[in-house]
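Ops channel
N.P.: pipeline sanity check, posting one input/output pair.
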C-alpha cells in the first residue's frame, strides 16, 4: 500500500503524481474500515482527503501551521503526519483523539472541537510570526457551516487589515451537521457558479501586470475599487470588499488544481481566501446519500451502512423530542430553536410537524439565546435545545438577555455530563457551575425518563427562565415508582433513614441507588434524595436532614467547583448545621476521550470508589465523635 509509505510528516512529498490518486483511494478505504469498528466522524473526513493531501504537498510540517475549524475532519492530517497505527484506538481512552491535539503531535497547531474558531487562532499565529520575525505559512481551514458563527466574522474583520500572508481555506460542502441556513449559505451558492468571474478576473490581472512600469499599480488600484469589474459578475463580493483576496471556487477533489491554487495563495501579501468545493462523504455511497447520519456514527456495517448495534430503549433526547412535540400540539405558543443541530437535539420531528414555529439559526448559539429572549418577550414560549458544551458560548446572552429580564425561556441542556469519545471539548461537565451563578435562572435535572417528561411540561408552563439538564444516551427506566409531582424548589426523598444521606443530581440516580444498596449490605443506614432542583437549593430539606444525619454525600456529574455539592457545603457552613459534607464529582480538570463508564472510574464516579470514600468518612466522623 502507498499509505504504508507515509511514516512521518512530509513523506507525501516523496510520492509521484501518479501515486497521489491511489493514495486518496487508500485513505478513504482505511478510514471507512477503521471508523466502521471504532465509530467516529466519517462524512466530514471523507470529504477533505484531497484537500488535506494538497495542503501537505505545499506546506512543511511542523514548521508551517495548519488550523482546522472544529477539527473533526483532521483524520487524513493525522494519517499524513505518521499516526496511522493509532487508529485502532481512535477516540478510546488513552488512544488517538478524534480532534487535533497539540500534546499528541507537533503538527497539530491548535486544539479545536467547537466551530468558528480557526480564523481567530490563525490570526494570532500570524501576529506572533510577524512580531518574532519568523517565516512560515499559516493556514486556517473553515467550513461553510462555521461561517454562520459570529466569531468567524469578527476574525474576518480583523484579517482584512493584514499586511502579510494568511491563507483561509473555505471548505464548502454545503452542509454543517444539519443543512446550512441563512444569507451566507445563499451567498456561497451563488459563488459556486461564479467560475466565469474568477477566470476573467485572473486573466485581466495577468494582462494588466504585463504593462511595463505601471501594471502592478493599476492592479492594486482595481483591487481597492469598490465598484470594479467584479461587480459585473458577482455583485457585492463580500470577501474582496473586505480587502481579502478571493480565489475560487476550485474543485476540492482535484489535487493538481488544489496544489496550484494554494501555491498561488501563498504568494499574496495579505489575507487570501481559497474557496474549495467538496462533497461530504465522498467515496462511500451511504455517507454521500446521508451525510448527516454519518457525521459521527458509531460502529457500522460497511456493506449496508447500518449500525452494528441498535438499542430499543429511548434516549433522553428522544424522550425530550416526543414530549415537546406533544406539548406543542396543545400549545400554539411553544416554539423550538436549534443552532444547526436539529437531529442531534431531537428537534427534527418538531421541525417537520411545526415548520412555522421551528427555527434553525445555524452555528450561532449566542444569537439563538437572544433570539429566544426576543420570542419570549413577544409572547411565545421558546425552547432552545443545545448541547451543554455549546451552551458555554451563550453564557453572556443567558445572563444579560434572558435572565436579567426574567424572560420565560426554556433551555434544554442536552449531552450534559460525560459524553465519552469526543473528549475534552465536548464533555458537558461545567453547566451546573456556570448556570448556577446566574440570578433568576432555575436549574433542574431529571432522574429518569418519566421525570424528564414531567420536568419539560413544568418548564414550558413556568413563567421564568429555566434550564433542564439531561445526558447523552439511553434514558434510565429505574425508580419508576417514585414520581411525585414537580414542586418548585423541592427535592424528592426516595428513602428516609438516618446517619448517611446521599443527595444526587439527575442521571446520577442509578449510581446513587447502587451506592446506597452497597452501603446497606455492609450495615450502614442511608437515606437517598433526588435533588431535582440544583437551583434553587432545597434549604428547608437540608435543615430537616441535618437533624438525624451526620454525613451528607452529594453526587453529580459536573466539576466540583461551583457545582451542586459546593452549594450544599456552603449552605451547611453558613447555617452552621452539625453535619459533614462529602462532595463527589469531577475534579478541577478537563476529561479526555474514552468510554463513559471507564471515564467515571477514572474520575472517581464509580460505585466502588464512592462506597470506599463514604465508609472512610463515616468511620472517621464517628471516631471523632
Amino acid at each position: 500500500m502507498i499509505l504504508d509509505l507515509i511514516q512521518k510528516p512530509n513523506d507525501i512529498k516523496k510520492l509521484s503524481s501518479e501515486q497521489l490518486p491511489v493514495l486518496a483511494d487508500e485513505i478513504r478505504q482505511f478510514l471507512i474500515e477503521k471508523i466502521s469498528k471504532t465509530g467516529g466522524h466519517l462524512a466530514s473526513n471523507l470529504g477533505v482527503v484531497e484537500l488535506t493531501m494538497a495542503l501537505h504537498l505545499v506546506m512543511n510540517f511542523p514548521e508551517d501551521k495548519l488550523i482546522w475549524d472544529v477539527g473533526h475532519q483532521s483524520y487524513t492530517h493525522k494519517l499524513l503526519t505518521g499516526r496511522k497505527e493509532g487508529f485502532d484506538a481512535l477516540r478510546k481512552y488513552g488512544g488517538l483523539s478524534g480532534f487535533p491535539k497539540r500534546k499528541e503531535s507537533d503538527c497539530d497547531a491548535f486544539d479545536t472541537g467547537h466551530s468558528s474558531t480557526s480564523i481567530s487562532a490563525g490570526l494570532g499565529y500570524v501576529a506572533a510570526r510577524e512580531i518574532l520575525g519568523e517565516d512560515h505559512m499559516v493556514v486556517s481551514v473553515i467550513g461553510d457551516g462555521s461561517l454562520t458563527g459570529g466569531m468567524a466574522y469578527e476574525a474576518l474583520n480583523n484579517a482584512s487589515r493584514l499586511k502579510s500572508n494568511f491563507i483561509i481555506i473555505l471548505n464548502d460542502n454545503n452542509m454543517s451537521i444539519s443543512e446550512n441556513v441563512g444569507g451566507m449559505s445563499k451567498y456561497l451558492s451563488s459563488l459556486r457558479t461564479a467560475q466565469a468571474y474568477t477566470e476573467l478576473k485572473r486573466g485581466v490581472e495577468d494582462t494588466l501586470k504585463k504593462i511595463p512600469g505601471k501594471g502592478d499599480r493599476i492592479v492594486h488600484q482595481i483591487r481597492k475599487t469598490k465598484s470594479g469589474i467584479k461587480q459585473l459578475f458577482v455583485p457585492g463580493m463580500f470577501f474582496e470588499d473586505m480587502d481579502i483576496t478571493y480565489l475560487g471556487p476550485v474543485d476540492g477533489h482535484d489535487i493538481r488544481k488544489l496544489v496550484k491554487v494554494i501555491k498561488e495563495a501563498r504568494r499574496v501579501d495579505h489575507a487570501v481566501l481559497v474557496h474549495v468545493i467538496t462533497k461530504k462523504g465522498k467515496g462511500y455511497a451511504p455517507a454521500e446519500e446521508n451525510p448527516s447520519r454519518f457525521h459521527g456514527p458509531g460502529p457500522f456495517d460497511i456493506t449496508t451502512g447500518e449500525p452494528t448495534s441498535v438499542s430499543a430503549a429511548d434516549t433522553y433526547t428522544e424522550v425530550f423530542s416526543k414530549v415537546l412535540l406533544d406539548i406543542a400540539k396543545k400549545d400554539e405558543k411553544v416554539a423550538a430553536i436549534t443552532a444547526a443541530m436539529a437531529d442531534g437535539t431531537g428537534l427534527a420531528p418538531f421541525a417537520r410537524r411545526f415548520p412555522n414555529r421551528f427555527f434553525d439559526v445555524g452555528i450561532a448559539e449566542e444569537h439563538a439565546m437572544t433570539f429566544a429572549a426576543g420570542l419570549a418577550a413577544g409572547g411565545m414560549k421558546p425552547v432552545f435545545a443545545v448541547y451543554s458544551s455549546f451552551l458555554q458560548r451563550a453564557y453572556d446572552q443567558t445572563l444579560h438577555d434572558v435572565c436579567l429580564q426574567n424572560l420565560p425561556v426554556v433551555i434544554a441542556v442536552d449531552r450534559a455530563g460525560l459524553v465519552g469519545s469526543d473528549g475534552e471539548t465536548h464533555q458537558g461537565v461545567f453547566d451546573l457551575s456556570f448556570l448556577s451563578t446566574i440570578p433568576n435562572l432555575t436549574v433542574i435535572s431529571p432522574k429518569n425518563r418519566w421525570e424528564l417528561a414531567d420536568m419539560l411540561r413544568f418548564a414550558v408552563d413556568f413563567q421564568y427562565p429555566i434550564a433542564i439538564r439531561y445526558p447523552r444516551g439511553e434514558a434510565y427506566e429505574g425508580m419508576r415508582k417514585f414520581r411525585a409531582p414537580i414542586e418548585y424548589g423541592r427535592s424528592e426523598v426516595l428513602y428516609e433513614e438516618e446517619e448517611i444521606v446521599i443527595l444526587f443530581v439527575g442521571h446520577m440516580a442509578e449510581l446513587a441507588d447502587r451506592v446506597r444498596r452497597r452501603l446497606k449490605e455492609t450495615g450502614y443506614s442511608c437515606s437517598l434524595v433526588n435533588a431535582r432542583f440544583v437551583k434553587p437549593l432545597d434549604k428547608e430539606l437540608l435543615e430537616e436532614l441535618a437533624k438525624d444525619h451526620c454525613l451528607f454525600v452529594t453526587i453529580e456529574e459536573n466539576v466540583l467547583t461551583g457545582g451542586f455539592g459546593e452549594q450544599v457545603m456552603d449552605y451547611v457552613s453558613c447555617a452552621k448545621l452539625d453535619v459533614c459534607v462529602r462532595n463527589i464529582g469531577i475534579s478541577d480538570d478537563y476529561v479526555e476521550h474514552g468510554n463513559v463508564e471507564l471515564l467515571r472510574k477514572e474520575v472517581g464516579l464509580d460505585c466502588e470508589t464512592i462506597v470506599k470514600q463514604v465508609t472512610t468518612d463515616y468511620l472517621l466522623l464517628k471516631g471523632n465523635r
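N.P.: looks fine end to end. The radius of gyration is 27 Å.
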